[in-house]
Amino acid sequence: MSYSVxxxxxxxxxxxxxxxxxxCLSSERSVECPSCKTCFCNAPAAKAAFWKxxxxxxxxxxxxxxxxxxxxxxxxxEQLKRPLVLLVDDETVIQRVATRxxxxxxxxxxxxxxxxxxxxxxxxxxxxxxxxxxxxxxLDGREMARQLKQDPETAxxxxxxxxxxxxxIKYEQEARRAYRVDDYVTKPLDVTQLRAVLQKHLGAPQA
Length: 207
Prior knowledge:
The protein is 38% helix and 15% strand. By secondary structure, the chain is α/β, with parallel strands linked by helices. It folds into two domains: 4-67; 77-202, Rossmann fold (3-Layer(aba) Sandwich).
């Protein structure tokens, strides 16, 4: 069985079933073109066509990917690596992909699955940066950012807000003004973009 597709960027035809998942921070990832290493995630029309034409084997891979439960390792506070990034997202796929990427860049990482937990961990561990989804259960990522910035104990923590829905400039302006976020990025965010935003606010980690 194969699933022949054409890369939207370089027009190479390849078997999608034989290629690995991309490294985008997205709950529904796609695969990388073996020639140019581009995926379909940042081309909405191409991604929609990719999944619309996908055979059952491809859809089964997606289902299996979503079922893999991510479990963040328990680390004693004194063993947390610095600079420390607190990732706050309720999607297990994003938790897994982002954690691996952040660790590979040389930063420490903690994971929270909702805004309430993120607020608690931020106050307890004082990470250098919080990378949070905008919309989550229990406590919105934007509101979590506002509370962190209002508290003198956590006000200096950098907060980067991720969103797949609120992509307009007016939403970014609101997030910076009303919730005092330090940066605003749109999903899907690939690992290259993730590295860039972390280095922008934290600098390169110590070897």
